[in-house]
Amino acid sequence: MLKQALGALCVGLMGSAAAFAGPLPAPVSDEDFHNSPAQLIGLGRDLFFDPVLSGNHNIACATCHHPTLGTSDAMSLSLGEGGIGLGELRSIDAANKPKTRIPRNAPALFNLGAKEFTVMFHDGRTAKDRHAMFGIRMPEGRTLERPMPSALAAQNILPILSPAEMAGDAGENEVADAVAAERILGPGGAWDILARRVDAIPEYRQRFGDLDVTGIHINDIGTALAAFIGSEFRADQSPFDKYLRGENTMTDVQLEGMDLFYGKARCSTCHSGSFQTDHDFHAIGLPQLGPGKEDYADTGHGMVTGVADDMYRFRTPSLRNVTETAPYGHNGAYSNLDDIVLHHLDAVNGLAKYDRSKARLSGDIEAYDWTAMDNFDELMRIAEAIEISDVALEQAEIDKIMAFLGALTDPTAGKRGLGVPASVPSGLELDILAPPS
User: Fold this and answer.
1) Ramachandran angles phi, psi of 322, nearest 5°
2) Which end of the chain has fewer CB atoms at under 10 Å, N or C?
3) To the nearest 5 percent, what fractions of the chain are helix, strand and coil?
């Protein structure tokens, strides 16, 4: 009955399959990126890998955004607080079991240092906004206390407040207690506790001092993290980049896939611009898994704006290095790139016939992962919100598009910068690729 009901929506959701040609983007240049001093980048590198920013001193930004895992963690939904290890080998800490998975997929970090990236998170809850305090919109109760140089810098100081991601649960540490009491801002707030923790480490205090920062503020930490992320994970040396600069770097099959991407397949309707994203929000009917944001559901951008038309819309991800950033979607519903490409061609069918084995989940979490998918009414709401049109392609055409997506990968991204430190100033242990025996 469910598949029939969803299938009945197809007729109303299908659009014209007429081909059209879209322009290619301009080649990326140094002018497209923010620049930061080397000292700040190095400082941000150490903070990125240092568990000192977590409430329980046991998880770092790199835990869910590791360079060896495509700047994500290779999982549909991460195990944050209460996990041990990295990626698929991350396991549950028996002494500190997580209550739930993180509700959304850990997004890749490639090219976030580009100036055009002004919208953050899958739902856009942090974004450049001239009407907001200091020109950057933040979630309620987390208003910026001082100016910040970018939306990325502002975004960096939010995961450290999430109980499931980095803060931990009330009763475990003073950061978690402050978050639970909604004491975020000002002296004694969660941000202040973390800033003072970093300031108490002599090496961090000295290195910030060398940058004329005294009395480390949470904004200084977020800014340093942004400097590192923006520099380390720049990805603009792919075959496609070089082709746009006039080099003969793409195969005939990749070029044919490019023509389909910017033409008949209509991929560039949303995946436009220099980094294959319009930075906008779209409802594509992805199957919902995990805890969601409210009663196992996740309405995306609609939760931020409160506008009915924004329900179930999520930010268009960049496709740079897409071959290295699986799983795909705001909740990692698809572990394979070809599966999410097929979903885009017929979203209603993809939702109705979704194979739950296509998600990549680890750990035996007591909370059920498929409540939303077992709810007929919720599935219908997801389906009715779908706004992308069906596209009819032959398998040979799909194969060519896949080849073009491969041409968007810069094999040197994340490998030509500072890399993973051998140690961090706090002296805390770095996350490792396998859990301890």
Assistant:
1) -60, -25
2) C
3) 40, 5, 55
